[in-house]
Amino acid sequence: MDIMLPEIDGLSLTRWLRDHSNVPIIMVTARREEIDQIAGLEMGADDYVVKPFSPQELVSRVRAVLRRVGRDQAEAETERVLSFSTITIDPRTRVVTVKESQIDLTAKEFDMLYLLASYPKQVFTRDQLLERVWGRADYIDPGTVTVHVRRLREKIECDASSPKHIITVWGVGYKFEL
Length: 178
Prior knowledge:
6 helices, alpha+beta, single chain, 44% helix, elongated, four-stranded antiparallel beta sheet, three-stranded antiparallel beta sheet
């Protein structure tokens, strides 16, 4: 975005874009005064580049902004509430409700349930679950996953011996069904 556009003020357009979207914005302009830079950033620009600049600098700044946006989106995804027919999982409060009753889960039980429910029908192996939930602690027995799955089933399934949500895929791992 340039501050000096032919038909509209770049600062106003930046403010409007920021109010209506989270699209990354880099101000690219000949205006080098500190007050202009501050105004651009205060209006919602993610970065400010003064002309002339090298193409490599601009590419690096674009990559940096995209990295930040990617992290923000990843964090936002990890915070989304998952809601199914009888189960709601809220990662911000770490509360799970089944048929409108709050269920007490350990931290690892919650993390495993949230992971499985975030990717319905996708099969996760024990090793994948160990890596994603426990951070790949090599000293942890893979049987830990089986124990946590059993405990989760006892807490969220109507009949833990005949689960409808946390399903075993024999010889592979586990998946979450809607």
